[in-house]
Amino acid sequence: MASRKSPETKEEKLALIYENLAETINPEIIEGILDEGRAVKVYWGTATTGKPHTGYFVPAIKIAQLLHAGCEVTILLADIHGFLDNLKAPLELVEHRSNYYQWTIRAMLEAVGVDTSLLKFVKGSSYQKSPDYIMDVYRLCSVTSEHDAKKAGAEIVKQSTNAPLSGLLYPILQILDEEHLGVDVQFGGVDQRKLFTAAKEWLPKLGYKQRAHIMNPMIPGLHGGKMSSSEEDSKIDLLDSPETITKKIRKAEAAPKIVEGNGLLAFVEYVLLPAAELKTGARTFTVERTRDALEPLVYSDVKAMHADYQNDVLTPQLLKPAVADAIAHLTAHIRDSFAASPEWQNLTTLAYPPPAKKEKKVKNKGTHYPVRPKGDEAAKETPKDEAPKEA
Amino acid sequence: MASRKSPETKEEKLALIYENLAETINPEIIEGILDEGRAVKVYWGTATTGKPHTGYFVPAIKIAQLLHAGCEVTILLADIHGFLDNLKAPLELVEHRSNYYQWTIRAMLEAVGVDTSLLKFVKGSSYQKSPDYIMDVYRLCSVTSEHDAKKAGAEIVKQSTNAPLSGLLYPILQILDEEHLGVDVQFGGVDQRKLFTAAKEWLPKLGYKQRAHIMNPMIPGLHGGKMSSSEEDSKIDLLDSPETITKKIRKAEAAPKIVEGNGLLAFVEYVLLPAAELKTGARTFTVERTRDALEPLVYSDVKAMHADYQNDVLTPQLLKPAVADAIAHLTAHIRDSFAASPEWQNLTTLAYPPPAKKEKKVKNKGTHYPVRPKGDEAAKETPKDEAPKEA
């Protein structure tokens, strides 16, 4: 299905692996594995707490590129953390949500046409309760100071002495996952940088090898600022209809001429252009101008698009319907797969039962997960522009 | 064997359970169980790091009294903690040490003649790596703040941001042990008070019931101050010969007329008098005065002994040989059992191999256990005057 030519040489593979990344730690590990001729094993984790939305396309596109470059990708569905996020939520609900995540993420990757035969989903609960794993948790806790654990989680875990202790365990678990999932590389946003640096130092203390780390930049949300789960309109669900997508994008914040902090432009750069290339082989993003009876603007280069935007050639009024249209196309496969799968449909009702008034109250009371800053309910459902790391 | 009459009524049982305690939390739990007519289940934990010495008689006598009062006593041999105490120490060594602890503690209890049929030894590793247990660790960590964990461990865990994270897990584990060992009561020194108070609050957060807590006072060591493992003479091994015991006690610090901080008098009060009562039915401690051709001083009452000491009737010169003699008698059964058991003898060599010069260096480098204050090597082998709690 993927029309982008599969990379064959080491250089082609590296180019695809590193495309659009903000930073890489220990790239020599990745390069050494390519020299050996074996598949690079990468892991990316997500807590199965909220509901995946279009923001998840940012890591998903990188994962699609990794798969296309011949990497074996493990997606960790951090269900234990999902359960711990709210002790009042029964384990079955979290179980249904991890299954929902699995269906959705797979469909997102299929949507760009990459081969998913090297894709693997692993639930945290399948090994994070095993004796080997827990002995490593105890061992790593005994050689890691509170100070270092705090530093490692500084940008991803709420920092205060009133924060739950699980916030300090968080880096311990995420770092051990590299060893216990048997991977070579961990992938995450640059907000994971301190944790990834810690991983380099900590794993060798237990006699385990260092891993490489690849990091996506943090990009602004589609609506400029943070997406908010409390504002339904600010979050585009992966199953939203084309009409709903258009409506929501129309409300997106996009100041004319200003490129910085513009979530629509960032989404084109990090999702729509690479998705088009993976799917069709052509790295293009088209902006129709039929209303003004002008030729469409066709971009394959982010710089050209930014220049046009700054000069108001590419106005928000032109950009918005183009982005909405591209998202509707990108998510068509997801909607189709959902429509064709009674199993997935059934799962959705189980995973996200309609909120009863009473239930909502319980949920708010039980909210104390350390990764989510207090009062930032948004982060639970829609962490910045990235899918959340393990939570 | 025990000559003290077994208590029969609730009041008699309570009197023996509470004898010489500093404090009890939730005594109504203990009393309620006695009203039900079932055996009260008590747990006491010890990290299997060093080597049990005569200081362990302080908790052992209380355990003997609990057994004599019909309680079921579980002794937790905290081997995982023993292993974590020094990552360089192989697991087999720790395994041998827990077995050594078991042999020794059983012999200490037999030495005072109590029925040990209701005594049970449990190794931490037998359940502290199980999925149920670890899920409770995760859950309790997610509802306990760093601040509260620190407060709970304030007197038993080294407090600094550079301390290992395991120090914060320490209270979590010790409190969960109450649930997972299925006990009604936890027994420890008053240094455990903050942890015991936390246990009352924390267990109900996971839907578990509160336990009662009984606490021994902290008493001065036989040598007045702290025992030190680096000074062989300051620590009386449970297998020391009567001659060695006499020699060591002769060097004990004991200022004439001063009762406060006098480890010899405290040992008589908390070990020798109750041990004599359990063993013979007579709560007496005898001080010979044959050299001065005087009648022996026979005490059954601590107050009378303190009064004589303050008036210099009972001088350090008289007290020391009497204590040495009583310890030699009390430990005779332990020496005899050891002499009769090739298995125990063999175990001793395995558990405490003669230190090679190189090995010693490695040991010092690996020393980072949170319970032991930095630089206080003594605490590892001979924690204050009490046997250490789980470490």
From TrEMBL, chains A, B:
Which ranges are annotated Basic and acidic residues under compositional bias? 373-391
Lineage of the organism: Eukaryota, Fungi, Dikarya, Ascomycota, Pezizomycotina
What enzyme category does the UniProt record give?
ligase
Query: Does Protein biosynthesis show up as a keyword for this record?
Result: yes
Superkingdom, taxonomy of origin: Eukaryota
Q: What is this protein called?
A: Tyrosine--tRNA ligase
Return the InterPro entries for the record: aa-tRNA-synth_Ic, Rossmann-like_a/b/a_fold, Tyr-tRNA-ligase, Tyr-tRNA-ligase_arc/euk-type, Tyr-tRNA_synthase
Key word Protein biosynthesis present: yes
Any one GO CC term of this protein is: cytoplasm
Q: Which organism is it from?
A: Sporothrix schenckii (strain ATCC 58251 / de Perez 2211183) (Rose-picker's disease fungus)
